[in-house]
Design brief:
This is ArgG. By secondary structure, the chain is an all-alpha fold. It has one domain (18-173). Helices cover 66% and strands 2% of the residues. It has a two-stranded antiparallel ribbon with strand order 1-2. The protein is flat and about 80 Å long.
């Protein structure tokens, strides 16, 4: 009895993708309008015109796309706007991460300052701010900046949807030779250890 011949299917190669920053990630990292207003009120900062920033950036990108319309094909416009929007989203996400670190530092220093037994954290002379107060004010400034950049990113994403006609997604590119890079780094470390 003969066995039926099996057809060989090539195995699919899994290509790892480098994940891009999404608007949802920005929303998690950056303060929303209510939190930005609370920060501004608590620290005596100017209130940011959230809707104005968002609308301005949406209008600006839509008008730019209209001006480029005759010179760019549909796919070229999509690629161009993909990059522009990605820059706005990436910038807002970076600001949100920086804000988060600033809040953590402010919380840590404020908690240390609340301990009456630590001489190094005692406030300075009357009329001067403490280190903890400066950290809180710095975190507040970073929160307002992160919020403003979030609104610019949201406007850019809305413009992409308007011009291209589909929801913006971050570009995910394949990681180039992930194993080879690790092997090369390991080899360099081993050679360094040898002298």
């Amino acid at each position: 009895m003969t066995k039926p011949a099996r057809t060989q299917h090539p195995t699919a190669r899994v290509v790892p993708l480098r994940k891009g920053t999404t608007l949802e990630m920005v929303r998690l990292a950056c303060p929303d309008a209510a939190q930005a207003a609370l920060i501004a009120e608590s620290f005596g900062s100017p209130v940011v015109d959230s809707d104005g920033i968002r609308e301005l950036h949406e209008r600006m990108i839509v008008e730019t796309a209209e001006a480029l319309g005759e010179g760019l094909g549909e796919r070229a416009m999509q690629i161009h706007l993909q990059r522009i929007v990605g820059a706005y989203v990436g910038s807002a996400h970076g600001a949100g991460q920086f804000y988060s670190r600033a809040v953590t530092e402010a919380r840590d220093l404020t908690a240390k300052a609340a301990n009456d037994l630590r001489d190094e954290d005692i406030d300075g002379p009357v009329g001067f701010e403490s280190a903890a107060q400066r950290k809180r004010e710095f975190a507040a400034d970073m929160g307002i900046q992160a919020h403003a950049l979030r609104m610019a990113a949201e406007g850019a994403v809305a413009a992409y949807d308007h011009v291209v006609g589909e929801r913006w997604k971050p570009f995910e590119r394949a990681v180039e030779n992930p194993g080879q890079t690790l092997d090369r780094k390991a080899a360099e470390m081993q050679m360094a250890a040898l002298g």
